[in-house]
Amino acid sequence: MSGPFLVLWCSTLLFYLGFQLLLPVVPLYAATLGAREAHVGFIMGSFALAAMVPRPLAGDLADRIGRRPLVLLGTAIFMLAPVGYALVGGIPALLVVRLFHGTGMGFGPTAATVMATDLTPAARRGAAMGVYGLASAVALAVGPYAGGELVPRLGFTRTFLVATAIEAVALALAWTLPETRPAAGPTPAPLPAPAGARDRAPGALVRFWRRWFSTAAVCPSALVLALYVSYGGLAALLPLFAERRQLGNPGLFYTVYALVSLAVRSPAGRLSDRLGRRAVIAPALGISAASLTVLAVAGSQRAFLGAAALYGVGFGAAQPALLAMTADRAAPEERGRAMGTLYTAWELGISGGSMLLGLCATTLGYTATWGTASAIAGVGALAALWPAGRPRRRR
């Protein structure tokens, strides 16, 4: 592990720690302002929606101007947003701050993940993505539980300011990172257009896609979408679900899930290097689906935490393999757009999952909510088994 990779890892850890600290806090804070499950789902989902919009731009900018400026921008937004939460007094203002907060997720992690792949040899990419993913897993193991404990002791405002202080340290570390964007090579001379090329010119939608997205990332992005619908529902609704069924501090679910995910990420990444990405992704999505079925019928803390452990196995195994699959399929000069495409699907899954499952919880109850999330992850597991075209050679 190189020095810059270690600094990036530590900055990423603190970036996610300040964010995960607020994971159980914001839904509860919204509930004190009068929000119901459907409202909470929309508010939490708006974060991912705001993160999704700049993802393609972030990927493109990471390729054109560099990774480091976007890492700094995203971390600075994460430092300022908790101050906004502390100042709001109603749901509309909370929604505005949540949207602002989400843009930081759109810029920072997109560029940071590209930077991590820049610093890693291709032959060890799956293992490296597993190690890099440990930063967010450690933050998830500590942050939500700490947030659940801090609110009763410090109140909402001081808890928000703790998150700001953590992000300030993350920004200081990120400031020391070098730029890792490869030097631009000579631009090849354009080939003459063949006869009739004007008649075959791509339409506006195709041009838009080619400008901002990567076709190489379509397959892993579809699988990420299936996985992250459930994550969006958990992020929005789990604190209210735990309170409704009297299952204790919801942070315990995140802690168990994150610790198990922490344990499986690196081995799963190495396994995907040896056996192939799909050999890891398909069973991981299947295990995630099973965990959500357990959660749907959980009536005790033991079943609640058992579902968390299963979800940690599935999520922790799938994520590094999906990141590595994306990097495998994209040429180095296209890697920023490929990660932007992947993270767009990532945020679409979270935002859509938060809103869809929030509405489901309000109208049908939590058993149907987690059952729906399980079915979507199960479809993703089947899709991961579907044969695909030969990916590009890893570089």
Q: How would you summarize this macromolecular structure in one to three sentences?
A:
With 395 residues, the chain is mostly helical. It is built from 14 helices and no strands.
Tell me what you see in this structure.
The chain has one domain: Growth Hormone, Chain: A. It is 79% helix and 0% strand. It has helices at residues 3-20, 25-32, 37-52, 55-64, 68-87, 91-118, 125-175, 204-212, 218-245, 251-275, 277-297, 301-329, 335-364, 366-384. It starts with a helix and ends in an 11-residue tail after the last helix. The mean pLDDT is 83.
Which class in CATH terms? Mainly Alpha
Report the portion of residues in β strands: under 5%
Mean pLDDT metric: 83
Any guess at the CATH architecture?
Up-down Bundle
Based on helices, strands and strand pairing, what is the structural class?
Answer: mainly alpha
Distinct helical segment count: 14
Q: How many domains is the backbone divided into?
A: 1
Rg is 21 Å
User: What would the principal axes of the Cα set say about the shape?
Assistant: globular
Note the main sheet. none
Give the N-to-C terminal Cα separation: 19 Å
Number of strands: 0
